[in-house]
Amino acid sequence: MLLEHAEPGLYTTFRRLFVCFHPLLQGFLLGCIRFAGFDGTFLKHKVGGISLTEVGCDENNGMFPIAWAAVEGENYNSWMRFMELLFKLFDVGSGHGWTFISNQQKGLLNALSILALDAEHRNCSRHIYQN
Hints:
- By secondary structure, the protein is α/β, with parallel strands linked by helices.
- The chain has a single domain (about 1-130), classed as 2-Layer Sandwich (Nucleotidyltransferase, domain 5), CATH 3.30.420.
- It has four helices and seven strands; from the N terminus they run ββαβββαβαβα.
- It has helices at about 20-30, 75-90, 105-115, 125-130, and strands at about 1-5, 15-20, 30-40, 50-60, 65-70, 100, 120-125.
- Helix 2 (about 75-90) packs parallel to helix 3.
- It is globular and about 40 Å long.
């Protein structure tokens, strides 16, 4: 778990929280295919923010939770930091052999194009239909 603050000092402002439990990391590496889906959703409470999630696919085509984060907004910087931490944990490298699916969010697509240049990217059919 990693907690980041906007400004160090006596009174700090919460900025980001990253969570990836070790058993989930090991479970994904040992029993899942190299496929992951990314999405973000609003946190509806007085503080606000966005929840970013990464979900994998196990060998039975079931959803496998991997990691999540609470961030200040769904933007390039938030997605970039989230993916940097994930890709380092999973040793994604240039992304060769990986497939990612997302909802076409611009910040997410930009971060993916920089961090996983060789990965395949697919768009969620539900979001394509809605747009």
